[in-house]
Design goal:
Chain lengths: ~120, ~120
């Protein structure tokens, strides 16, 4: 059974803290993604990675960074958490596309509250 | 630029009714992919269908059917004889034919099926 696992289901952090959200997939997928989900806005892409040590900015990268040191792990880093980063964060993975555009597999989400 | 519109924010139906969820997309590419995902209350998005831009055939899978019309840039999703388990948020998504599989999601439609 394919799996994308996010390290925490719920997190509460203080303003200014450095926050790490971890995501691990066991499907040997090349692509990994971080989205944030907010009511009425759907999912917005923060960063994605198509290979180890490779990363591309999505639509809303400001205030975030990512790390992909191993193929199975993709970390999202909030350098200095702010209250407007309170959101649901979703990690996903997929096979590399090209001609065969692959569906994404999602983790269960991390609900982050910044106080 | 890519864009996905789901005009229906929330829909409520009584069990066994049919319901159609609308999706309108914008893209300049001739090669693109469309997706539908379901997000049940548990939070994990589940892939439902993928359609490429060269395949306009409608698809049926059990109680689910999809109507893809390039002329109106729409990819609508119909649930026949709805059930309580269909209650979820449904997302339509679009990606263009690049190798990095960047997927843009619509804002989602929240469907409530009332017993």
């Amino acid at each position: 059974d394919v799996k994308v696992t996010q390290s925490s289901r719920y997190l509460v952090k203080r303003t200014g803290e450095k926050v790490f959200l971890e995501c691990v997939q066991d499907m040997d997928h090349e692509n990994m993604f971080w989205y944030r989900q907010d009511p009425g806005l759907g999912l917005r892409l923060i960063y994605f990675s198509y290979d180890v040590k490779m990363k591309e900015k999505g639509d809303i990268p400001e205030g975030y960074s990512v790390s992909r040191e191993k193929k199975e792990r993709f970390s999202l880093i909030l350098e200095s958490a702010s209250t407007n980063q309170t959101s649901m964060y979703l990690c996903a993975s997929s096979l590399l596309g090209g001609q065969g555009q692959a569906e994404a597999f999602f983790g269960q989400g991390t609900r982050l509250t910044v106080v | 630029a890519q864009k996905v519109t789901q005009a229906q924010t929330e829909i409520s139906v009584v069990e066994k009714e049919d319901v159609t969820l609308d999706c309108v997309y914008e893209t300049r590419d001739t090669t693109y992919y469309l997706f539908w995902y379901k997000q049940p209350p548990s939070g994990e998005l589940v892939f439902l269908i993928r359609r490429n831009s060269f395949d306009e055939q409608n698809e049926i899978s059990g109680r689910y059917s999809w109507n893809f019309q390039k002329s109106t840039s729409s990819f609508n999703f119909t649930i026949t004889a709805s059930q309580v388990v269909d209650s979820a948020v449904y997302f339509c998504a679009l990606s263009e034919g690049t190798s990095y599989d960047k997927v843009i999601f619509g804002p989602g439609t929240s469907l409530s099926v009332i017993p």
